[in-house]
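Need tokens for this chain, all 703 residues.
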Amino acid sequence: MPSWRRSVVAPVLGLLFLLAALTVDLVGGLALTGVYATSSIIASVSCRPGRTAVVAVLAVAAATLSGAVNDTLGDLAWAVRLTSCVVAGGAAVTAAHLADRYRRQVHHTSRLAQDLLDALAVELTGARTVTEVADAFLGKAAERLGASSAMAFVLDDDDVLRSVSWLGRGGPQADQYTEVALDADLPGALAVRTRVPVHYADLDAISRAFPALAGYYPEDRSLHLLPLVHEDSSIGLLALTFPGGTVDSIEERGLLESLAGALSAAMLRAQALATADAEVQRAELLTEASRALSRSLDWDETLAEVRRLLVPRLADWCSIHLLRDGILSTEVVFHRDPEVEAWAQGMRNAFPVDMDSPTGSAAVVRTGEPEIYPFIPDELVEASAVNEKHAELLKRLGLVSAVIAPMRSGDEVIGAISLAQAESGRRYAEEDLRLLVDLASRIASALDNADSFTRQSRRLSEVMKVAAAAQQAILATPPPQVGPFSLSVRYVSAAEEAQIGGDLYEVVALPDRVRLLIGDVRGKGLGAIRTATIVLGGFRSVAVQDVTVDEVARQLDKHVQAYLHDQEDFVTAALLDIDNTGLASLVLCGHPAPVLTSGGRWRLLDAEPTVPLGLGSAPDAVQQQLAPGDRLLLFTDGLLEARTSDRSFIDPEPLWAMIATQPFPYLLDSMLDALRFHTGEDLQDDMALLSIEYQGEPQGRSV
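Here are the structure tokens for all 703 residues:
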């Protein structure tokens, strides 16, 4: 029956009983003075205090009326019965008041419990770790219940209660209770040992039971210690404090105990999720690490991959110590919060590693054996600190668990990697240690490879600088004007990672003519430069002789053959002879034909093809009469092999069209700008460009 119906039925029944008794009394002549109080008792069963009082007053009035009708008014017996009626009515009103207050308390507690559980259901939806669960749970519980402080502890395997969340924590004394031994003489330890909730109504009660806590709380409050239990085993503790008088009923204490049960279930669920997540992560991490750590040979990129792999997936903190000259140097420190990480990076070498430390990174490097700390007590923090300031700093980090593994490259230990949990509250197990040992070897190999690559790159860079200097030395820049000819040359190296090539050019000026060479040595590096030097030296010695250009090519071929030790080595070349009248003779030894522009139009100045120099080249020259203003462009195949962003070869015809339209001093620069625009600056081969413009035979003089 609904409560509102019960509150109506009870007074009605009381009134009916009163009416029936009064009828019997008046009609039957029976003096029922004391019986009338029964009506108020009936009404008090489920009636509000006001209505019960009305029935009680009516009962007293009926008793008085009975005395008057039965002529007993004033008798001692009547007075006794009337007094009992008044007392019974008062008792009924008092009972109704207490029952009403109890009903209100139960209703308030039930509604509060339902609201709190609904709020917790929302808060805990995304929580997957014990710390996340405890933070969400305590935050919402403290807000809804009006708690002064709220603490959640987990009972670890070493029988120590460790704080995972603490709201309303205040004062330096609180630090001594972040870890509580199960056998300690403290109320929380007592509750967990006995698995029985402990409630203290005020500070006096707390101080009487545990004198050590006298003065700990600054103002009066109640303390409620609720063990977290699963299958008759304690797994932790929920501790709550409230302002005095906030929790003073059995129902309210029952609500707190129900909350402890809900927190136990949520924490167990979080532990199960964390375990499942860890297993999946370990399997994925090994696979991903093998792939990720082989992507780059760059030191910084490798470290960035390590951070991405480990933080925060496997750790809140990660540090790598590398052994350099017998000293462990902190190479890098990672943290899940970038701002905290930046601070830690600045502090990483503020406290040098004690190489004689019996534990930690130094011990791991010395022994080659990994270490695991499922729990990090204050004693371990103090033992690993190099001084008091360092110990204070380590305590502020709030580390709760750690693993350290040696970093092995081959048979050599090159350092140690440390992982630590703090904010997440997660604990490392043996499975995590085995995983880190495996990862540490892969990380060590990746860093060792990156370091070797960096050293080799530096050595190669020095060699390349020498090669580039040598190449620049052998490729002399011709003068801009030789007799009736304007000259321009450009040499462009390929991408930075490419080796120095063997592209070459030379201009030899004679009194009545100019002779030009452009070529490309097969191969790269210093060997190509050596061959290029041989070709240039041979050309300079033969070009000054009074022989035709095809004879120059044949003698140069024989000269080169004497120095080529590999039958696959050769040199492509184009040789051009132009006398002062503009008569040009060209031979091609396996080389691209130059471009001729005349009258604003361009064409390839082709010749009979022959094999490259060094392979028995014996070319025949072709001749072309140049008119004043005609231009020729000689180039190496780096131009033709340039590719666009979609990896297709460029179309050179727009470049050929530029030869006739651009001012001669800016011609080659304009062509290179256009080439870079189409290739995105990505040249795959070296390139030599040599342009010449015939201005007409000089009048009255010869060169």
